[in-house]
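Customer escalation, tier 2.

The customer says the design service returned an amino acid string that "doesn't look like it belongs to this structure." They asked us to rerun it and document both sides in this ticket. The original structure tokens are below, unchanged.
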């Protein structure tokens, strides 16, 4: 029998985009992180998943942000833990806001990233995005 897996893609509204004027049809209370984080956890729990979770993407949040702290505090593992480096440099400010997190049922091996600093041109002829691509291989822990 062929192996199959399910992927759930879910965009989490980054704190930097939480502006009530951008969401005029939304109760401002719903936008508060202390409320959204519980609603998000409940919604994710209702998704049909089986073995493990991988949460990845541009979180528009640095490692000391509430979003990243909540993921780590909920047991998610940063695939690039111990190898943290900048993944983009908007406004000539190199920073890490892109992540691959996974649950502890998986083991990850992240790919090496190109080193960037405040002056590295992104996008460029070699790197067509304003963010570096994160890549990790995963295997099921026995």
């Amino acid at each position: 029998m062929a192996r199959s897996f399910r992927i759930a893609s879910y965009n989490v509204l980054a704190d930097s985009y939480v502006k009530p004027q951008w969401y005029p049809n939304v109760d401002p209370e719903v936008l508060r992180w202390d409320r959204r984080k519980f609603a998000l956890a409940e919604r994710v729990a209702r998704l049909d998943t089986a073995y493990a979770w991988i949460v990845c993407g541009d979180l528009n949040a640095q490692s000391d942000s509430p979003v990243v702290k909540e993921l780590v505090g909920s047991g998610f593992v940063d695939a690039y833990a111990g190898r943290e480096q900048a993944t983009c440099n908007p406004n000539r400010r190199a920073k890490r806001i892109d992540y691959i997190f996974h649950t502890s049922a998986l083991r990850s091996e992240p790919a090496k990233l190109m080193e960037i600093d405040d002056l590295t041109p992104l996008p460029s002829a070699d790197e067509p995005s304003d963010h570096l691509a994160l890549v990790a291989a995963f295997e099921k822990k026995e």
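Tier 2 assessment: The sequence is consistent with the input. The domain at 15-140 is CATH 3.60.10.10 (Deoxyribonuclease I; Chain A). The CA atoms of residues 106 and 140 lie 5 Å apart. Sent an explanation to the customer and offered a walkthrough call.
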